[in-house]
Amino acid sequence: MAHMGAHAHSHDEHHDLESMRLMGFWIFLITDCILFGTLFATYIVLHGNTAGGPTASELFEMPGVIAETFILLTSSFTSGLAVLSMNQGNRKGLIGWLVVTALLGASFIALELTEFVKLVHEGATISTSGFLSGFYVLVGTHGLHVSLGLVWMTALMIQLGRRGITNVTRRKVNVISLYWHFLDVVWIFVFTIVYLMGVM
Amino acid sequence: MLDQIKEFASGFFVTGDPLIYGADVAIAMTMIAVVSVLTYFKKWTWLWREWLTTVDHKRIGIMYVIASLLMLFRGGVDALLMRLQLAVPNNDFLTPEHYNAIFTTHGVIMILFMAMPLMFGLFNLVVPLQIGARDVAFPFLNSLSFWLFFFGAMLFNVSFVIGGSPDAGWLSYPPLSGKAFSPGVGQDFYIWGIQISGIGSLATGINFVVTILKMRAPGMKLFKMPMFTWSVLSSSLTILLAFPILTVTIALLFIDRYFGAHFFTLDGGGNPMMYINLIWMWGHPEVYIVVLPAFGIFSEIVATFSRKRLFGYASMVFALMSIAVFSFTTWAHHFFTMGSGADVNAFFAITTMAIAIPTGVKVFNWLFTMYRGRISFPTPMMWTMGFIPCFIVGGMTGVMLSVAPADFQFHNSYFLIAHFHQVLIGGVAFGYFAGLYYWWPKVFGFKLNEKIGKWAFWLWNIGFYVCFMPQYALGLMGMTRRMSTYGWDRGWWELNLTSTIGGFLMGIGFLFQVWQILHSIKFMEKDTTGDPWDARTLEWSIPSPAPHYNFATIPVVDSKDAWWEEKQRLVQGEAPKPKPPLEPIHMPKNSGIPFIMGFCWFVAGFGLVFDWLWMAIPGLLGVAGCMLAHSFNYNTDYYIPVDEIKATEAAARRSV
């Protein structure tokens, strides 16, 4: 009897623990917002300082960027579908949608890297001008976030395969989906401020 | 081959200065001594199991305090070396280059590797106990924060003997700190030392916000929290919003230096003034981050030793929170002379003056708390009494500096130096000392010797005024900061010599504190009550030192000063509240991952400083490996059985 009591109690505590971890992640996202906010501010200050090098409207090619944008937005949608499958208790659906999300994320990164390589070959490197320093670091920091997310998502898929949907893995899926949506929102700002305002 | 090694070593190690050779010998001997003592007494396993892998907030707090006191020693030696150099005109005790390095490391160490960790130490030692919790929200992350701070501090300090110290000032303004003007590795040590420990600080901020918002004992509504906990909340919220800016700024400086980018360079469209704006957008909140908890400490101490409820609780909370918000609106007062124009300067002058209002509210609250109280003066209260006048003078000279037109005269003079030392020593250092003295019996289970403590207090307090009052005058006489020497014809030497004497008085005060600790360990005066000061908040309701699970049963709170009210009820003959039966306690398991991950960061940082990718890449892979290892580990907690709790409680109190 005493054992059962302890068990019920522990179940409650685990639940509290997981909700606390989710809250911690929300707060981490606030700090990440400030981090991106600072990078956006530096980009906005420097975006006119081309130092005789190429300008934004000369460099950016919108078709590729629009493709990247749609891929990332779709991946945000599929990560939402993954969470829905999880809430229905459907582990296969959950892992399947996470795989789709990760593949979309990887193709986003591949496109971004292709763009960077092309720019560097055109002679537009990080040390060309203040504008390009700001561009590479802002867009690159977003890309780094997405890449870390991919590693993390892969690790989580392995854990889901081994352990199924538990309180702990459920919280982890919720957290990574939050992270993924957050990166999507940041990309909307990158797309608008860096690319759209750059070519207009 | 031998020649190659010699050539490498002469660039790798700092050479040519007898002071550094002396330090080399001292460091080597200390390390040999530590290793031999640990080996001789077979303490390596003990060190690993009980300390290096611990996730217990109380032990992490103790490690923070020890590390920060060592850093206080190093920063203090730097200060005294500077004062010796300035004691007489035309002195050649330190070369100008050496002097630059010393004022840089003095500033960085005192703020980032002394004040911050001492503050985090107090957070850890006190907050969970004060809110009736068994640990912080994320114990693993807490341990990781500590080891990131520790290895960041080590990386920074290594520059002293390997590669050369940074010498571009504590905030390292570009273009001086850029590759063109600081080609050596010192600046890279600065970047990675601060970056690594800064990530830890950010994590601690998140940890304590969640701890305070989610882990308070049942019944402890926000407006029933102890004032120190409020101050930690305001400080942690400020950390969340300020530290990411530091991370970005330092990272951009690194990218400029390493990849040749043009954020802060003079050529290529860079903008050095942007660095100065960014670094102060973090830097100004940073000084409030360190001083807010000191305000909380004074609030606890004043109430305890006046035997009265804190006067103006709600206004105190409001003042703390409004200072946290206002701290983000004043940064440009650090560079009124930059030339932003009259409108910008007027805005920042007014916001800066406005911050004096909530600060004034606090001072009046402390004074009214003492009014008609039954006041006693043990050491924590003495430091509080030393703080109030000191901080008022420091605050008023701050208001003088905030007057933008007048600031064109004061800017970067010794007037400024005297001002910020007065608020940082008089406010932060006095505050943390007061806190250490106050909570020492709770942490270690014995009291510190009062008599030696009073000697230390008077030496510090008198030394402080002797050291810094002359510096206000020197500033008005035209002496600017960071000058390594001056001529006889300036008429500055009498005041400088006086200031040096004051500095050494504070140094002797520090030695008295060391003696006080050693003496108190030897003639241990044990605290058997758990409540040696007859205090008011929950941490005093449990034995000293606290058992590792803190509270055998979680207390239920129905008022401010919960423990004081409970004691009053007992005095009036009411029966104590019935305690619920003991249940198994859920605890986090120790983990070696934080230590290993901190070490991997150290390796990566060292590799990046010297541009050795063969070292940096494995270091970073190690960091990633540690994170994955933690993610895959599901065996992270355990239960303390009821019998063990009973035994521990009985040993501490002889009854349950």
CATH topology of the largest domain in chain B: Cytochrome C Oxidase, Chain A
| CATH H-level superfamily of the largest domain in chain B | Cytochrome c oxidase-like, subunit I domain
> What class would the helix/strand composition of chain B place it in?
mainly alpha
Order of helices and strands of chain B: HHHHHHHHHHHHHHEHHEHEHHEH
Cα-atom radius of gyration of chain A: 20 Å
The CATH architecture of chain A: Up-down Bundle
For the termini of chain A, the CA-CA separation is: 72 Å
Percent of residues of chain A in beta strands?
Answer: under 5%
Please give the structural blueprint.
The complex is a heterodimer of chains A (200) and B (656).
Chain A: H1 2-46, H2 56-59, H3 62-87, H4 91-121, H5 130-163, H6 167-199
Chain B: H1 2-12, H2 18-40, H3 44-52, H4 57-86, H5 96-130, H6 139-158, H7 186-214, H8 227-259, H9 272-306, H10 313-326, H11 342-370, H12 379-402, H13 404-410, H14 414-444, E1 446-447, H15 450-476, H16 493-522, E2 525-526, H17 562-571, E3 585-588, H18 593-609, H19 613-632, E4 637-640, H20 642-653
Antiparallel strand pairs in B: 1-2, 3-4
Helix pairs in contact in B: 4-5, 4-6, 4-16, 5-7, 5-9, 5-14, 6-7, 6-18, 7-8, 7-18, 8-9, 8-10, 9-11, 9-14, 10-11, 11-12, 12-14, 12-15, 14-15, 15-16, 18-19
Summarize the structure.
By secondary structure, chain A is mostly helical.
Folded structure, characterized:
Chain A is mostly helical and about 200 residues long. Chain A has a single domain (about 25-200), classed as Cytochrome c oxidase, subunit III, four-helix bundle (Four Helix Bundle (Hemerythrin (Met), subunit A), Up-down Bundle), CATH 1.20.120. Chain A has helices at about 1-45, 55-60, 60-85, 90-120, 130-165, 165-200. The termini of chain A are far apart. The model of chain B has no long low-confidence stretch (mean pLDDT about 95). In chain B, helix 18 runs antiparallel to helix 19. Chain B is an all-alpha fold. In chain B, the strands form two sheets. Chain B has a two-stranded antiparallel ribbon. A two-stranded antiparallel sheet of chain B has the order 3-4. The radius of gyration of chain B is 25 Å and the shape is globular. Chain B has two domains: about 1-40; about 45-590 and about 635-655, Cytochrome C Oxidase, Chain A, CATH 1.20.210.10. Chain B has helices at about 1-10, 20-40, 45-50, 55-85, 95-130, 140-160, 185-215, 225-260, 270-305, 315-325, 340-370, 380-400, 405-410, 415-445, 450-475, 495-520, 560-570, 595-610, 615-630, 640-655; strands at about 445, 525, 585-590, 635-640. The termini of chain B are far apart. Classes of the chains: A mainly alpha (about 200), B mainly alpha (about 650). The interface of A and B includes residues 128 and 168 of A. Chain A: InterPro entries: Cyt_c/ubiquinol_Oxase_su3, Cyt_c_oxidase-like_su3, Cyt_c_oxidase_su3-like_sf, Cyt_c_oxidase_su3_a-hlx, Cyt_c_ubiqinol_oxidase_su3, Ubiquinol_oxase_su3_dom. Chain A: Heterooctamer of two A chains, two B chains, two C chains and two D chains. Chain A: Keywords: Cell membrane, Electron transport, Membrane, Oxidoreductase, Transmembrane, Transmembrane helix, Transport.
